[in-house]
Design a protein that fits this description.
This protein is an all-alpha fold. The protein has six helices and no strands. α1 runs antiparallel to α3, α1 runs antiparallel to α5 and α3 packs antiparallel against α4. The chain is elongated. It starts with 5 loop residues before the first helix and ends with a helix.
Length: 149
């Protein structure tokens, strides 16, 4: 990515965020349809702790993260929204790592590896994108208000 302008980097990141947001929506639907999805794929260390209430709460959290990521993909130069989106990956990574290594409710399986890889790589990509955003991709709130009127 060296030598590329902010626009190209942010465009690639925008596409990635859209893909991740759509995957999260799929996970949301899955958790509402069948709560055993979480106990058989994610929280395999303590599947007996997963119930319908936990699955629905997880589904709402995942849906909210998806909405934030989708909004960021649409308006990727909005620095405040960008930072909120970045925080969704920090929270997700922290959650999954703590469930695996602190609470031992999630074992290191493919079901856990996928969200760890997505959250970790997305976090790194967003931190790199933040450098490009600061180099000139940011639209100020004053410019945004001018565009609205």
């Amino acid at each position: 990515m060296a030598g590329e302008g902010p626009g190209r980097v942010l465009s690639v990141l925008r596409a990635w965020l859209l893909i991740v947001a759509l995957m999260a929506l799929g996970n949301t639907i899955q958790t509402f349809r069948n709560h055993s999805f979480l106990s058989t794929h994610l929280y395999t260390g303590s599947p007996n702790m997963v119930n319908g209430l936990h699955a629905r709460a997880y589904g709402v959290w995942t849906m909210l993260s998806s909405i934030v990521r989708l909004a960021c993909a649409i308006d990727i130069t909005n620095k405040s929204l960008y930072l909120v989106c970045l925080s969704t990956f920090v929270l997700a990574l922290g959650h999954f790592l703590s469930e695996a290594f602190v609470y031992n409710t999630a074992l290191l399986t493919v079901g856990l590896a996928a969200p760890l890889i997505v959250a970790g790589s997305s976090l790194v990509a967003m931190l790199i994108g933040l450098l490009y955003l600061n180099k000139g991709g940011e639209v100020t709130s004053k410019e945004r208000r001018k565009k609205a009127f």
